[in-house]
Design a protein that fits this description.
This protein has 2 domains: 185 residues, Isopropylmalate Dehydrogenase; 149 residues, Isopropylmalate Dehydrogenase (3-Layer(aba) Sandwich). It is α/β, with parallel strands linked by helices. Pathway: Amino-acid biosynthesis; L-lysine biosynthesis via AAA pathway; L-alpha-aminoadipate from 2-oxoglutarate: step 4/5.
């Protein structure tokens, strides 16, 4: 048995169904085989719109300080954000990404037979820059010539663009190595490691132009070129179109914050449900797992929310914390549950409840 290691994980349910799926994520961690040599301790933390309504603060200082000083990683559930301006409120997950410098949002989109909305197998990763672009949230509204004008700053920096391109390149090479190992019994031609840079530099020549150039320069470095990494580019509107007609073609797609957000949510339609799609907010030495779905207030408390996105996010968190074997166990257990198709939640056309699905994954672990 491997020497035991204890990881401290912050648990932030947030709003709505986050309170149902984050306990499911904890249960998965607690159910990992002892042979992996991993132990976990947990700390419950608060953030979200409900926290804001109670305290006037969406992201308490204690949450940030505890994550910074005590935790190796974290799981974040979901946030209910108001659709109209609410004085004093801003998204706690956006703030967390900035405060912890979680500069990469990594969103794998993988289909499993029986649960996909597209006929061909899909296995791609969208890597989204997480700290800037329009999400810097620097806006103003003013009057001009008798009209009302609202403006927002779109900020792109070379340093942020370079490190997100590096992350995308590293993920592409790592995925290629995994495919090479899995090739042992397959006669199919293996997909080459590839990064597709998506942007709108034909219109936004300064901001997206800088992102495009920096990504190409970064991925042309010897560490990537010598590994035969293929690098392509795609204008973002065309990228959306091609994503829906040939999703099996893509490997790793990297984009600025807003485009990455839109592409990853759109890609979820290819695999039947946002309830299947995980993400990890990654920095240097810290990973926060976050399912891609929202707080789903219409089904909160009914016990029918799909926990798979959270469970896969647990796997991603483990992967970026250097626990690849534990992550692989989680992924395999989830895939086994989906392949069997006996226990599917309503978003996938089934009748199973959250606890039934979690119990099945735990049994497979």
């Amino acid at each position: 048995m491997a020497a035991s290691r204890t990881l401290r994980i912050g648990l932030i349910p947030g709003d709505g169904i986050g309170k149902e799926v984050i306990p499911a994520g904890r249960r998965i961690l607690e159910s990992l085989p002892a042979s992996l040599g991993l132990k976990f301790s947990f700390v419950d933390l608060e953030a979200g719109f409900e926290t804001f309504q109670k305290t006037g603060v969406a992201l308490p200082d204690r949450t940030v300080e505890t994550l910074q000083k005590e935790c190796d990683g974290a799981l974040f559930g979901a946030v209910s954000s108001p659709t109209t301006p609410t004085k004093g409120y801003s998204s706690p997950i956006v703030a967390l990404r900035k405060k912890l410098d979680l500069y990469a949002n990594v969103r794998p989109v993988k289909s499993v037979a029986g649960t996909r909305a597209f006929p061909d197998p899909i296995d791609l990763v969208i890597v989204r820059e997480n700290t800037e672009d329009l999400y810097v949230k620097e806006e103003r509204t003013y009057e001009q010539d008798g009209d009302i004008v609202a403006e927002a700053i779109k900020r792109i920096t070379r340093s942020a663009s370079s490190r997100i391109a590096t992350m995308a390149g590293e993920i592409a090479l790592r995925r290629a190595k995994i495919r090479a190992v899995e090739k042992s019994t397959s006669t199919e031609q293996q997909k080459q490691a590839m990064v597709t840079i998506t942007h709108k530099s034909n219109v936004l020549s300064q901001t997206d132009g800088l992102f495009r150039k920096t990504c190409f320069d970064t991925l042309a470095q010897p560490r990537f070129a010598s590994a035969n990494l293929k690098v392509e580019e795609q204008i973002v509107d065309s990228m959306l179109y091609k994503l829906f007609i040939q999703p099996a073609y893509y490997d790793v797609v990297v984009g600025p914050n807003l485009y990455g957000d839109l592409l990853s949510d759109a890609a979820a339609a290819l695999v039947a449900s946002l309830g299947l799609v995980p993400s990890a907010n990654v920095g240097d030495g810290f990973a926060l797992g976050e399912p891609c779905h929202g707080s789903a207030p219409d089904i909160a408390g009914l016990g029918i929310s799909n926990p798979i996105a959270t469970i896969r996010s647990v796997g991603l968190m483990l992967e970026f914390l250097g626990q690849g074997e534990a992550a692989a166990r989680v992924y395999q257990a989830v895939d086994g549950c989906l392949l069997e198709g006996r226990l599917l939640t309503p978003d996938l056309g089934g009748k199973a409840g959250t606890e039934e699905v979690v119990g099945d994954v735990v049994r497979r672990l």
